[in-house]
## 1
Amino acid sequence: MGDATELLKQKLTTEDYNRLTALANAKLHAFVADAIELTGAESVYVCTDSNEDRAYIRALALEKDEEIALNIKGHTCHFDGYYDQARDKARTKYLLAKGSDLGESLSSIEKQQGVEEVRSLLKDSMVGRQMLVLFFCLGPVDSEFSIPCVQITDSPYVAHSETILYRPGYEQFRKLGSSDEFFRFLHSEAELEDAVSKNIDKRRVYIDLEEDMVYSVNTQYGGNTIGLKKPALRLAINKASDEGWLAEHMFVLGAHGPGGRVTYFAGAFPSACGKTSTSMLPGQTIIGDDIAYFRKINGQMRSVNVEKGIFGIIRDVSAQDDPVIYEALMNPCEVIFSNVLIDGENRPHWLGMGGELPSDGVNHSGQWHTGKTDADGKEVTASHKNARYCLNIADLKNMDPLIDDAEGVPVGGVVYGGRDSDTWVPVEQAYNWAEGIILKGASLESETTAATLGAEGVRTFNLMANLDFLSIPLGRYIRNNLDFAEGVEDPPLIFSVNYFLKDEKGKYLNGMGDKLVWILWAELRINGDVEGIRTPTGIIPKYEDLAGLFKDNLGAEYTQADYVRQFTVRIPENLAKLDRVEKVYREKVADTPAILYQTFDEARKRLNEAAKKYGDNISPLDLPAE
Ligand code: SPV
Ligand code: MN
């Protein structure tokens, strides 16, 4: 380690050197020294948890043109390159030692080859630039859930985003001492043209599970670069599997039931399928919108938000549908907008914000006007469909008071949902934990969205909405989820939800606001307040209970005809779904637990028996209550 210290002494100012070496951790020093040598950074800034250091990062993002100031105090806008607008799944890979295998569903590259490739792309990538070294904590600080992380980046935008999204970690590293239990992220935006990464074809996100380290290069889009977000989720899933806890792509929400009761829900949805808006339901309180860790503490399943901010999709955020977010986006507080449209007065605009959009301005394509087309003749939309906002949850009016609790919150319900136009009913409770994991979570399919590169609207298998981030074989992941209820006194109830069900003419059967009713019904179920109706796939609400919830919470009249249309059990679609999903497991997953196939068979049997008795489409009014 003597070498590392020598190099650090040469390259760092006395102040930065003292800041870094105040953290007496040889692995950390070696990581920073190696990054300096590799990237050829001209200087290094070591960021502590102080407000002054945060202000320095914010100012740097403006100075380097990675963000521009908007017309409201604290608001800025960042643009990613035109072809760098979403997670690049194809170029995100695990570095695997020869002979190890994660199964064919997860992309990997032989470790030595991959490390050489990504390091050659990082070589001299920071020449003439300042390297930023930042410390964060995943999960609440000083808790069983905490994972300290160090991020190295040459992008002040990435650094700024992380100061909003994650709890500060410099002091956590002080407490960590010489332990090597922390995650490391090395990112360089590399060669820039007009302040965006130029060599998108050389974009790489490579993950080293043995080293708990991720490399990212030639990209700026947050999902590829913000180490603590999805790269860290991948490391955490692997760590959790070794240590007996769970890392999930889930929101955590406090649902407020009768008499001031709060019941906590965790919910998994693929990207751009209503996860953030569920975590923001009116009248409820938010813990987190994207990533949650779960641990068993004193016989309870407890959960924390890994983050403290939101990197949310801005499309369709409007005063009417998302009043809490909308208010923050219209008032002074720290917000980074990305890939929206900026008008001549430095105001942001986006698709679906309500009202007319300007006919020109600046967006992710440069100067923009209505009807502009790109090099492929494709229309450039005013804002990108995956345009985002990044803000602190503390700036929202609906933050749950337990957000930073070191022991997390007790989970009463788990929800799985996707973009499903023809099969699942709007809400349904699974008969038990194992059926919930298998018939809801492990059977999740969703139509693809703009949150990842590639075609939209294609129905795709997406196990627990976490498939994009899995770092362990799929069967083991399912097993871990099944086993997690062992030793829990009162396991959470599991529900499926579907906000995207359509009728035979392709019209949505539900309004955007209806999701509040599904969650509040689930809240009543968890607390034993309402009966349900038994269907071949699970337990659905009774009409009267929903009618009451619609009236009390949305001031809406809910007709029996609506109920029948939405909650009719579609037998052929459910059978077809089981067949599609089973095929994936049989053909692509070598370690599928046998219980999955058994549970599918039982569900098929129930569906076939019901079809014999009631026909292919079963009205909920024909089925018996519990
Ligand atoms: C998602 O796509 O699931 C997100 C944003 O939450 S990203 O950072 O791109 O992962
Ligand atoms: Mn996400």
## 2
Amino acid sequence: MLGSLVMAHPLQPSVGHPGSRILSVASYRPRTEVGNEAIAALIDSSDEWIRRRCGIESRRRAAPDEDLVMMATAAASKALAGAGVDPYDVSAVLVATMSHRGPAATVGPLVADALGATQAAAMDLGAACAGFPYALATADALVRGGSARYVVLVGAERMTDIIDERDRGTAFLFGDGAGAVVIGPSPTCDIGPVVWGADGSGSELLRYDEAGFLRMAGPEVFRWATSIVPDLARRALDAAGISAADLAAFIPHQANLRIISATAKALELGPHVRVATDITTNGNTGAASIPQAMAALPDTTGPALLVGFGAGLSYGAQVVMMP
Ligand code: UT7
């Protein structure tokens, strides 16, 4: 009864910003480079087969001292330095990952602590290889809505911890590493609208087995990806109000060079569009692949189309202005 007598009044809203933008990007690549021969020997494969079927020549593997938090922190602190943002001024740290296996329930707070981001909220975001576009959409909404000013977003994977080195379907494909961006307020919209979705009916195609190893129905995932990615990419371009001809770069999740090439062809990208092919020397680094591939395209200015897809099944895409 008392409630109905109290005058309802609106709560004070957060004060946001017209837009947000990526201020900087950085990558951490583990020290150890592993070529195809060493992996092929364990799975009855060959350097030639691996290059032909997915375009990978080598990938990085984390040493014992290169754990997930260390790699994420290294990429994030480089990104903060590049943006000229003091860790104390960071409002939120988001870590997109699918390979965290440490004793801590979440790695975000550990990364924030290691960065010295003592005022920041921190959390993990689990959307597998779509993790970066998902987390970017979240960071953009936090800044525009006024819940955060500077957000550190890290994609970090230590796939070595979840890959069975004798699994013929995954052992050659995945690599370790971290990529990070710093997002801050902008008077213009420099992170375009996200187009995203999920289809849990396909979750069996990429799953963990009883031992915690990632198992993948490769050909089925390949067919799913090539069937959805071009349309997803076109919808993200439409949502941003630009066409493929306006792009400076195309930076899809580095899942397989054949998927990247097929999508670039389907989108009829002109020769002026830089297509990220970081997979050749970095492998598939899950949620880290898009920011790492972005960092590997220095001196690129203008709009870039990002597309992530993978376990879940989850997918997401948006156009961003390159930092
Ligand atoms: O990041 C998350 C999303 N993930 C992806 O998007 C990955 C999508 N899938 C793929 O990229 C590909 O399916 C792989 C690269 C994983 C595998 O390539 P594929 O062309 O789909 O191989 P497949 O499993 O269809 O096998 C083709 C042939 C078979 O031989 P036959 O039957 O044609 O004689 C396999 O037995 O290649 C054989 N094969 C291999 N040969 C050497 C399968 N795995 C291997 C191997 N080495 N590791």
